[in-house]
Design brief:
Blueprint lengths: L1 H10 L8 H11 L3 H37 L3 H14 L1 H8 L6 H9 L4 H26 L1 H9 L1 H21 L1
Helix pairs in contact: 1-3, 2-3, 2-8, 3-6, 3-7, 4-6, 5-7, 5-9, 7-8
């Protein structure tokens, strides 16, 4: 389990791609106890989110803004921090349920001084949905579940993007 917590930590700190290829086999090897892997991933991910939040709070000018500037996205960064100051829960939640890298959103939330308790709630709920849904599939289908997830990784990613877009549309229109 410590290795799974480390994977969760890395996924929300320095790794910019989804870590399913590493943790799905761990879930499959646990069978009916795949939820333990999901819990360890969640703990590591939330700890990394907290670290990124405070990094954004304390070092946004020195670290976060230059990263966005490097990608010619300074305007997007300022729009994101403004949006997070106004209503950051839903944008954070939407990114959290998808395999989209969450690090910069967490750091931007810290830079925007978004409510820390609401940040924890958004990260905790969204990442729980993601990890425990995957564990549920693995537990329900066993080895077939792992193979199904691997075979449909692109479709799952696209579905996550679709959910993200749908929630964004609802958020902005209503």
């Amino acid at each position: 389990m410590p290795f799974c917590a480390l994977i969760g930590f890395l996924e929300n700190s320095i790794i910019l791609f989804a870590m399913e290829p590493l943790f799905l086999p761990a879930m499959a090897s646990r069978g009916r106890e795949a939820w333990k892997v999901a819990a360890a991933l969640l703990v590591g991910n939330v700890i990394a989110g907290i670290m990124m939040y405070f990094l954004g709070m304390w070092a946004a000018d020195v670290l976060i803004e230059p990263i966005f500037a490097m990608f010619n996205a300074s305007g997007s960064y300022h729009e994101l921090t403004t949006e997070l100051q106004q209503d950051g829960f839903w944008p954070l939640f939407m990114v959290g349920v998808t395999p989209i890298p969450f690090q910069l959103g967490a750091a931007a939330a810290g830079a925007a001084a978004f409510s820390f308790p609401l940040f924890l709630l958004a990260v905790g709920i969204s990442r729980s949905i993601r990890y425990f849904a995957e564990a549920g599939i693995v537990m329900a289908l066993g080895e077939r579940g792992e193979k199904w997830i691997e075979a449909h990784e692109l479709e799952i990613f696209l579905l996550g993007i679709g959910v993200f877009i749908g929630m964004a549309v609802v958020y902005f229109l209503f």
